[in-house]
Design brief:
12 strands, 7-stranded mixed beta sheet
């Protein structure tokens, strides 16, 4: 009997320009696209979809509209039950998610902005990109929202990841240079951020990441209280502005080093701690990002709590690098480089 996975198409996808739809997709077992089209596309051909896109975006170029229509048609008409999906997780740097398509196209009006959906059975939601996986990034991480994977070695790796389930996938030889040149390459900025992410996560485990966050806040002009051992009561760092820390904003900070997304309960504990400590605001730093329920709690506390994920922490480190302590700079040795910004065709 032929294994369906060995005949299936492998699709590479991104879930939002900044990964803003990842939590929803992983928690609710779906993938989706939008491109500004808020109408049901069931039974529509690519040419019919193109006309809808042109009506929605009359000022865009023919090439941009054709690209959007083609990508919508990929999810609506070309993706099939049994196909595989690989997603580079922007909110969980250094991780991929792989799954199997288990449902036909559905229009979900409740998903504002991305109503065109496919049900997916996620097989791996935190597949670590270890040393043997670097070549995969050249073929999975595109700025395009959805595309079929053409590179045979990448297809084989994704299939092995699906078959392996919870087991780690063995590394394979890198593709030769001639093959690599035929595929899109990882932007320098993204490759650099991955390297910084790997370094920070390795060198600042557990309580050490609290020390890094405190150092970043100090570089931004805050005074932080000395760490206290034992139960943290939902607070890892206490910070206030000014020389003595008595000036606004005065805030409580919670730091999570793990790659698992933070829950709503953890955010609620921070919200309670803000009142308990007499602070005015709170900052939650979660390396693994946030569950959609946690983001909902955060929205209710917009004027009191801010969220940082791994991307935000890395940006803060880079933004304040020159003002970090000598010790922290020694632990995170960085240098600034200039690179051409790649075109972004995502809609």
């Amino acid at each position: 009997m032929i294994d369906r996975d060995d005949q299936s198409t492998v699709w590479r996808m991104t879930l939002g320009k900044d990964g803003q739809y990842e939590s929803d997709a992983l928690e609710n077992n779906v993938v989706f696209v939008g491109f500004g089209i808020e109408e049901d596309l069931a039974g529509k051909s690519e040419e019919q979809i193109l006309r809808m896109v042109e009506e929605r975006w009359p000022s865009r170029s023919d090439g941009q509209n054709r690209s959007s229509a083609t990508k919508l048609s990929m999810l609506v008409n070309r993706m099939e039950v049994g196909d595989l999906v690989v997603v580079y997780l922007k909110k969980q740097l250094g991780n991929l998610a792989v799954g199997r398509v288990v449902g036909d196209y559905e229009f979900d009006a409740s998903k504002t902005g991305v109503p065109h959906t496919r049900e997916v059975e996620w097989v791996r939601t935190t597949l670590s990109i270890s040393d043997g996986w670097e070549p995969l990034l050249f073929y999975v991480r595109e700025r395009s929202t959805i595309n079929p994977v053409r590179h045979e070695e990448t297809i084989a790796r994704v299939r092995r990841a699906v078959h392996a389930g919870a087991a780690e996938v063995e590394a394979s030889p890198s593709p030769d240079d001639s093959t690599r040149e035929a595929e899109p390459k990882l932007p320098v900025s993204d490759l650099a951020k991955l390297q910084v992410a790997a370094l920070i996560h390795e060198r600042f485990p557990g309580k050490e990441m609290e020390r890094l966050v405190a150092g970043v806040l100090q570089a931004e002009g805050y005074t932080t209280a000395p760490p206290v051992g034992g139960a943290d009561q939902g607070v890892d760092v206490i910070a206030g502005h000014g020389l003595l820390g008595f000036e606004d904003p005065m805030m409580c900070v919670q730091v999570k080093h793990t790659i698992e997304p933070t829950s709503a309960e953890a955010v609620q504990r921070l919200r309670g701690a803000i009142d308990q400590f007499g602070a005015r605001q709170g900052l939650f730093v979660s390396w693994g990002g946030y569950k959609s329920t946690a983001l909902a709690v955060g929205r209710q506390s917009f004027f009191r709590i801010r969220f940082w994920d791994a991307n935000d922490l890395i940006d803060a480190v880079c933004r304040n690098y020159g003002n970090l302590s000598t010790e922290l700079r020694a632990e995170i040795p960085l240098q600034q480089v200039w690179a051409v910004v790649p075109d972004d065709d995502e809609a």
